[in-house]
């Protein structure tokens, strides 16, 4: 059965048409204009607030408009580098002072220089364990956790200013890749005041228009589009698969490291340390496999600790509550490293 003519007309009339019929087009137009003006006021207030008080997650995309000052400069290979030795020395004054002047280190025991994340630098971790145990070497580490590209910048700067270690040890874990996944080397934009910022995550079409200058739009994009990978999710994915673009970034970093160290005849050992998830839960080790293959291409020595930890019967004893290694875990790290080096000699 078809609807009656009267019922058909009821379905046919749209809400806007009913509104026009009731109030007339002039009143509807005024209401629409009022709504748009109100929306513009709200937008303007939000934009003004973010111009004055930009949150950290958009501050890093503001280039020369970002607040503060820094100690960095752009670098073709590493994304960022230290602007000068003096600024680097000041930034690392607490730990670096004991090694200065660097030329003086040549007169004592051979230097082993360690670079890495908190598994090297934090109190009680491998740096401290090596210093307390390996008494015939001078153990060098800065005690600060920097992103992997800045660690490589530190190595280059230290070598250029007189450090001559017998060997350099570089810790690598999946979590070291998270900053590269979130902000690739090609996205680095060090501003005129030495602050590290990054290319805007807005799509090209938006960023090329006036809307690209809107901090409200940028904040909304960050909240809802979520263009920056989640750190935990990205790190876990590396247990199973290494994205091609990440491998390319590591190749770029390793190329620079190889050039800096090979002309000084300084050997590199990559310390491939497994995570809590890999040791306790049996997660995959695709990251370690990829770093082994890539590191060998550049002539680096590889020390892979996965078997030493996965074969331990009491895995809980290897960790402290925050999932860093316990004293026992660090003792195993150092023991296996020394055995690895003896096997090379």
From TrEMBL:
| SUPFAM superfamilies, per the entry | SGNH hydrolase (SSF52266)
- Source organism superkingdom: Bacteria
Q: Which residues cross the membrane?
A: 32-53
Entry's Gene Ontology molecular function annotations: hydrolase activity, acting on ester bonds
List UniProt keywords, sorted A-Z: Membrane, Transmembrane, Transmembrane helix
Which protein are we looking at? Uncharacterized protein
Q: What is the lineage of its organism?
A: Bacteria, Pseudomonadati, Planctomycetota, Planctomycetia, Gemmatales
């Amino acid at each position: 059965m078809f609807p009656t003519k009267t019922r058909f007309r009821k379905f046919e009339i749209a809400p806007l048409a009913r509104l026009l019929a009731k109030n007339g087009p002039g009143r509807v137009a005024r209401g629409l204009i009022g709504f748009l003006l109100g929306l513009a006021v709200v937008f303007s207030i939000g934009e003004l607030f973010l111009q004055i008080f930009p949150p950290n997650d958009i501050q890093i995309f503001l280039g020369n408009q970002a607040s503060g000052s820094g100690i960095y400069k752009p670098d073709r290979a590493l994304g960022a580098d230290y602007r000068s030795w003096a600024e680097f020395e000041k930034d690392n004054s607490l730990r670096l002072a004991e090694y200065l002047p660097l030329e003086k280190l040549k007169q004592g025991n051979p230097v082993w220089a360690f670079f890495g994340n908190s598994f090297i630098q934090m109190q009680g971790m491998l740096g401290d364990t090596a210093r307390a145990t390996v008494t015939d070497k001078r153990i060098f580490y800065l005690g600060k956790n920097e992103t992997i590209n800045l660690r490589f910048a530190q190595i280059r700067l230290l070598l250029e200013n007189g450090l001559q270690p017998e060997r350099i040890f570089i810790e690598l874990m999946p979590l070291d890749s998270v900053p590269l996944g979130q902000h690739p080397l090609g996205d680095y934009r060090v501003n005129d005041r030495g602050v590290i910022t990054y290319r805007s995550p807005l799509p090209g079409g938006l960023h090329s228009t006036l809307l690209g200058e809107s901090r409200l739009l940028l904040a909304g994009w960050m909240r809802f589009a979520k263009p920056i990978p989640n750190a935990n999710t990205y790190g876990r994915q590396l247990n199973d698969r290494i994205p091609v673009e990440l491998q390319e970034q590591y190749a770029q970093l390793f190329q620079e490291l190889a050039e800096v160290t090979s002309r000084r005849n300084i050997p590199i050992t990559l310390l491939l340390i497994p995570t809590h998830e890999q040791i306790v839960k049996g997660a995959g080790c695709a990251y370690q496999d990829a770093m082994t293959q890539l590191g060998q291409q550049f002539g680096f020595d590889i020390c892979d600790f996965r078997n030493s930890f996965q074969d331990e019967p009491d895995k809980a004893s290897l960790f402290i509550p925050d999932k860093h290694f316990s004293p026992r875990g660090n003792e195993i790290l150092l023991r296996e490293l020394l055995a690895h080096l003896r096997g090379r000699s």
